[in-house]
Amino acid sequence: MRIVAIISARNEQLMLPRTLDHLHRQGIDVCIIDNESTDRTRAIAERFRDRGVFRIETLPYRGYFELTQQLQMKQRLAEEIEADWFIHQDADEILQAPEGFPDLRSAIATADAAGANAINFDEFVFAPCAGENFEDDDHVAKMRRYYFFEPVPNRLVRAWKKKALARQLTATGGHQEYGEHLKLFPENFILRHYIALSLGHLKSQYLGRVFCGRELEKGWHHNRVATTLDFARLPEPDQLHDLDRDGWRKDRKRIEHLVFDQPGPYVPPRRLPADESRAPMPFVVGVARSGTTLLRLLLDAHPDLAMTPETNWLGGALAALRPDAPADAFRKALTGAPNWGDMEIGEAALDAILAQPFAAPGDRLRAIYRAYAARFGVSRIGDKTPLHGSRMTTIREALPEARFIHIVRDGRDVALSLRELWFGPGRDAEDAAAFWMWHLRQIRQEAQFVPHYLEVRFEELVADPRKVLTEIGAFIDLPFHEDQLRAHERAAARLTELKDVHWGTRRITAEQRKGLFTLTSKPPLPERAEVWRREMSAEDQEAFRRVAGGMLRQLSYPV
After folding, report:
1. Which of 25, 387, 440, 553 is packed most tightly, with the most Cβ within 10 A?
2. How distant is the alpha carbon of residue 422 from its chain centre?
3. What is the pLDDT of residue 510?
4. What is the Cα Rg of the chain in Å?
């Protein structure tokens, strides 16, 4: 009897060696699907060529987690490979026989002899508690605390005879009993799921994960979408069973994972079609301190375009456009926002704007933006607000002409720039890594639902601004202009519109705000990239890498 496990893996260097070693000792052959890993996953799989791994395939990575693509490839491989039984598992899982069997192979043989063609597994999720780190240990031997996870009975049919598998995998992903043709073995096997080895590992696995938008629309993955920065958490010891003390207990079953804190349900945005009926309106978004102001001023220097300062009033204004909003809600949303004064639109001028008849809700916003553009005598308007990256679909519904430009910067430079600022995550490098990765994920997740989205790199912008601005110009239908390379000459004058604001109970002066952007008075220089090499300690570099190393590698930044 030949039994083959098919494992799809991406950046699983911490988990894969122990998983492959276990399968080899259990007498199971392995086919690996490498989802274009950027760590040592592929090299580890190659190292096991003489210990069970007989085939390694490559699955292209399209920038997001896509289960359908993985299952389709597993299905194809299961049809090609000659074997009697197949196991569908992940790299962070250890599958084992029930007690009383010497190994997984003999237990599957027993199921086969009994006439079964499928095996269900009980899932026991092993998790660290506060302060625990098993990244450098044998996590299977050392991690002993777990919780029993069963949101749906018979949800883990992970082993099938070949003919039964052909009808199962893409339909269910092995997550539920499906069809009368299955003859389940009466005794469940054991699946040990090592969901994380430390808090940093948990954050690295999930805070930056972008899920396929089409699958989110189907209702998949919602409980694993990080809806807050504090989404990843470690359980308390008293919430877990201890394997040495309790054995395999299935009481206190969990229908939701303990390690995810989801204060509200994730609702995927509505996918929006393209609209080319108006001149494109650029929105510059990104994680704070990623170069959004630099890019704003470079675009603003174009003689036909004015770029607003940060319009943090826009979120409230969008909510006030709803039909059920009070009549004065829109005006209050504008004037009540801390930085509304930066727009330099007085009360009388605002009253005159709002007195106009508006054919569509979005026209109210257009009138505000046009009033700003009129001060500069230009025909085109744009917006620069980092936080708008998390509300792109809402903006796009009101303003179909919106085109989003996401500027991405090495997170270590972002962390250094945020370190002393009132709106940053503080000095802890792991916190800064999570902050950068989470906000970057928010924008990339939302981007799947808008038709016009462009990513540019800060490092490329400072190295060759002409090239990047030309690319952006093509995206927003506004050809590059030489004046844009002289943006630094007028930067100080443009920043005079920044006023005093209140950040919570703290008053931030106009001078403090302008002090954030002193480098904009100089031309973009390549040495503004990779500052972390000179100014970040080795300890902080390592701490940042522990959490965000995968995201850095994915973006092709050096690790």
Report:
1. 440
2. 24
3. 86
4. 27
Beta bridge partners of 14: none
Positive or negative, the Cα torsion across 416, 422, 423, 424?
positive
Cβ–Cβ < 8 Å for 159, 113: no
The secondary element (H helix, E strand) that includes residue 159 is strand 157-161
Give rounded-to-5 percent helix, strand, coil for the chain: 40, 15, 40
pLDDT at 506: 84
DSSP string, 417-435: HHTT-TTS--S-HHHHHHH
DSSP class of residue 97 equals P
Beta partners for residue 157, in sequence order = 120
Percent of the chain with pLDDT over 90: 87
The helix (run of H) or strand (run of E) holding residue 392 is helix 392-398
Tell me, what amino acid is at 467? K
CA-to-CA distance for 507 and 286, rounded, in angstroms? 24
Q: For 104-127, what is the HEC assignment?
A: HHHHHHHHHHCCCCEEEEEEEEEC
Q: What is the pLDDT of residues 527-555, one digit of tens each?
A: 999 999 999 999 999 999 999 999 999 99
Name the residue with tokens 């009388």.
348
DSSP one-letter string for 439-500: HHHHHHHHHTT-S-EEEEEHHHHHH-HHHHHHHHHHHTT----GGGGGGGGGHHHHGGG---
Separation of alpha carbons 490 and 483, rounded Å? 10
Residue with tokens 């049919």: 157
Picking from 508, 390, 493, 491, the residue whose alpha carbon sits closest to that of residue 447 is 390
Report whether pLDDT(159) > 90: yes
Q: pLDDT averaged over the chain?
A: 94
506, containing H or E segment: strand 506-508
Amino acid letter for position 176: Q
Q: What pLDDT score was predicted for residue 176? A: 65
pTM given for the model: 0.93
Angstrom distance (rounded) from CA 87 to CA 78 = 10
Mean pLDDT value of segment 79-88: 96
